[in-house]
């Protein structure tokens, strides 16, 4: 009988909030959402992916942990994609772990614009190189040490033990891969487009047969709608965010703020698709998956489907999972798309 994996918290620290997810083995499904929490963080605590106010972030994380009532201490965190340099390299097959480490460090020095001693390096063997039995493809990842240490420090302030440091786009991909398995033929042969619409940035990921074939970030997010509410109605940013969630908005909100935001979002996603088509050999996408807190804006998914002619759906990271009875159904439906990265991090518990 396989021993249960240790409990693990998936923690996503974004410019607007801290999101925490805890999964456990299910009875009828492989995984079960045990509990989760989302807590806002102070404006300016994260700037351009950098931790500027660790104490403020730690306060938000501590509130989230108290709300959850969890005793789990092991945590998986993620760096923003922009803070990580990745490179696919080819190395000889059959080397030992130490030999791969030496080879990776040697290769990394060619691609990293700062001293090796200033970075954290990691690698993953992807599999045999196409057309060569003697080589393997290896994914190299490097980030400045302070980027890692800043996030580790926030977790440790809350009494947590960081055991995994991932990349947010990789964590999101983990969820997408799980969802793809439930598609006809496991999604094989389909180009899946994931648009993770955060508060400031939309991360675009194109996946074919389990491989990322395109990735980029665009400056579009839910904060634009918040700023429009502040500008149009004289609200404070915190009040504007609260009203967006509660629906307590002026009568002319749909015309003055919502419709322009949707049009901007549709234009950004159409532009990303065109860039994908013109900069890669691919000429189509088969499905568009939306995630991130801003994707639940009423009418956005429908407008994207209409403009692009591609089947578009809001992604639920917990699709196919069991959900604990203490989790509020209606609230989860609204908040699930924002938990994509945190869910992917929590899923690291189930890695073989």
TrEMBL record:
<dbReference type="InterPro" id="IPR043129">
    <property type="entry name" value="ATPase_NBD"/>
</dbReference>
<dbReference type="Pfam" id="PF11104">
    <property type="entry name" value="PilM_2"/>
</dbReference>
<dbReference type="InterPro" id="IPR050696">
    <property type="entry name" value="FtsA/MreB"/>
</dbReference>
<dbReference type="InterPro" id="IPR005883">
    <property type="entry name" value="PilM"/>
</dbReference>
<protein>
    <submittedName>
        <fullName>Type IV pilus assembly protein PilM</fullName>
    </submittedName>
</protein>
């Amino acid at each position: 009988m396989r021993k249960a994996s240790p409990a693990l918290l998936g923690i996503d620290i974004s410019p607007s909030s801290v999101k925490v997810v805890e999964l456990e083995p299910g009875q009828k499904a492989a995984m079960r959402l045990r509990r989760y929490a989302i807590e806002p963080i102070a404006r300016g605590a994260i700037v351009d992916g950098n931790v500027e106010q660790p104490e403020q972030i730690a306060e938000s994380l501590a509130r989230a942990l108290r709300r959850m009532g969890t005793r789990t201490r092991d945590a998986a965190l993620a760096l923003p994609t922009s803070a990580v340099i990745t490179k696919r390299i080819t190395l000889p097959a059959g080397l030992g772990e130490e030999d791969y480490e030496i080879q990776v460090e040697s290769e990394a020095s060619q691609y990293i614009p700062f001293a090796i001693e200033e970075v954290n390096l990691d690698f993953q063997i992807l599999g045999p190189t196409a057309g060569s039995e003697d080589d393997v493809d290896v994914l190299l990842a490097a980030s400045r040490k302070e980027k890692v240490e800043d996030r580790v420090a926030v977790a440790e302030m809350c009494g947590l033990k960081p055991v995994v440091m991932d990349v947010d786009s990789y964590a999101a991909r983990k969820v997408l891969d799980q969802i793809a398995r439930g598609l006809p033929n496991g999604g094989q042969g389909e180009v899946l487009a994931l648009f993770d619409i955060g508060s400031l940035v939309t991360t675009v990921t194109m996946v074919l047969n389990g491989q990322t074939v395109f990735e980029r970030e665009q400056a579009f997010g839910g904060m634009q709608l918040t700023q429009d509410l502040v500008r149009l109605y004289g609200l404070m940013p915190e009040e504007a965010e609260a009203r967006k969630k509660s629906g307590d908005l002026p009568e002319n909100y749909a015309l003055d703020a919502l419709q322009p935001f949707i049009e901007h979002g549709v234009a950004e996603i159409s532009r990303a698709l065109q860039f994908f088509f013109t900069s890669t050999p691919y000429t189509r996408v088969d499905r568009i998956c939306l995630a991130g807190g801003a994707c639940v804006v009423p009418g956005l998914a429908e407008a994207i489907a209409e403009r692009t002619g591609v089947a578009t759906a809001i992604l639920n990271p917990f699709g196919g999972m069991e959900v604990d009875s203490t989790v509020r159904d209606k609230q989860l439906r609204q908040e699930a798309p924002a938990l994509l990265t945190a869910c992917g991090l929590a899923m690291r518990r189930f890695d073989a």
